[in-house]
Every structure is written in C-alpha cells, then in structure tokens.
What we know:
The protein is an alpha+beta fold. 44% of the residues lie in helices and 21% in strands. The chain has helices at residues 2-15, 141-145, 158-175, 182-202, 211-216, 218-229, 237-244, 248-259, 263-280, 286-292, 298-309, 313-320, and strands spanning 18-28, 32-35, 51-60, 62-66, 73-76, 79-83, 89-92, 100-101, 115-120, 125-135, 150-153.
Amino acid sequence: MDCLLDALSDVLRVVRLTGGVFLDAQFSAPWCVTARVAPEDCRPFLETPQHVIAYHCVVSGSLFLQTGTDAPIELRAGEVVLLPRNDSHRLGSTLEIPPVSADELVQPPHDGGLARIVHGGGGESARIVCGFLGSDAPFNPLVATLPKVLKLDLRRSYSGTWIESSFQLAANEISAGRVGSVTLISKLSELLFIEAVRQYVEELPVEQRGWLAALRDPIVGRALGLLHSRHNEAWTAEGLARDVGLSRSAFADRFTALIGQPPMQYLALWRMQVAATRLREGRGSVSQVAFDVGYESEAAFNRAFKRQFGVPPATWRRQSR
C-alpha cells in the first residue's frame, strides 16, 4: 500500500487535479434528471480542463444513479459517487420516469454562493452537492485505469468521516456566499478522490489489469517506481528489465499486459507530463526542462512535446499562463 500511495501522490502532483463545487441540489420524490459536468461549470476554479472527473456527494436522503445501460447504483447519505470519465448519467428517486435536463433547472448563484436546483414532486427529499476534479494533462495513467463509476462510502474509515463533515461544512458556507471556503473545497475534492481510489484498490480482484493493479505486481510495480523517481535517466527496456530481474522480452510482455503499453512508450508520455508541469510552473528555460526530463537535445524535446500537446513547449507555456 505504501508503493501505491507513493505512486498515486506522484501522479497527482504532476497531473495536478483541481477540484471545486458548483451546485447545491435539493430534490423531492418523484424526480429524475440527466446530468453531465460542462467546462463552464468548472469556472472559476479551472478555465478549460481537458479532463473532468464529476462527483456527487449525498448530504441527505437517497437516490439512484445510472450511466448508459449499466445497472443503477443506489446512493445514500454519506456516500459519494465519482465519474472518472465524466459520462452523461441519470439521477433520481426513480429512474422509471422521463428525465429532465439538470441544466434547465439550475438557478444562478447569488452573492458568491453556489448555483442551486430545487426540483421534484414534494415527497421524500434528497440533497446532493455536485463538484468536479479537472486537469489539463492529456495523459493520466490513474484515470485511464479507473471504472466509469466509483462509489465511495465516507463512513468506512476515520479519514472518510472527517472528509464528510469538513465537506458538508465547507459546502454550506459556500452556499451561504462565504467564498473563503472555496480553497478548502478544492483540497477536500482531491481527498475525496484519493479516498475513493484507496477503497477501490482494496477491493481489486487478483486478476485485475491496469495501472493500479500493476502497482501491486512486484516486478511491474518496481519498474513504475524506477520510471517515476528517475524519469530523467537514459532508460532502455533492457536496462529496466535488468534492474527488476527479468529478461527483456519477459519484462516487456508483463509490463504491456498490465499497463496496456510498452515501458518506453509509458516513460515518454510520463516525461511529457513532468515537462508540462515544470513549464506551467515557470521552472527553468525550455532547454533546462528538456534536460531535466531526460532529453539531451532541445530540438528532440520540442518535436516530442509538439506531438503530444499540439504546440511547441514555449507556446504551451504562454497559453497555460
């Protein structure tokens, strides 16, 4: 689990998820809505995120959630549902009635508070707070391995209980127009995500594939640790295989089977994410960043960066600011 948390922290630090809350919704049965987080919902926390993870925190009552034709999931007070790929979904006291678009029900915020929804037939009530985590990184090995829906029970652990109480307090203050809690909500959103991932990993079956499952593998997990902690080294597949104690072919097959791509391709993508973070934070010139992530030639770095992000690193830095 220490290996998991170290690698998870590394990915979150580089990918930099920014969280926020944009909606306080009060429903009464019967009700059913369709929803999906739009880029404008992420303002003022994040301008135009490339990736959005939507989430709903159930403050009181209960409801059902369904993505596509998947089986509905029941949610109760103290539970959170995260949608790592921001899929369109339905929420309701029942999913058997025609849904209404949540966008049509939103009331604009007043005095710096949250946008609101008050909707339903007057029966049993449910309150949810809706938020997001956004990132401008195109490659996120963590999100890529998560399911479409993550259900988190905040009352399963001490940290979850603390997050739940703090989250409710901060959301109430924002709803009342006390904007000082915006930063706190952002950090709590990140903690929600980490807690959800932690609970998800605890329940992974042994045969599971993907980045998180690979961290539990003694060979591939060690290789990921080496690539993340020493990403600027001149790694080769042969050298990496030797350091983890396998032949090149056996290691490449094992890594690719779990991660879904060869080790050097994974390293190239990860270097680009580290480079983007350093460029965005203004840490050094383009040539210094290129060297720091393992490129001996600035020209080669520029070509690789443009392939990944669509623009040269200097242009990307100006745009990200």
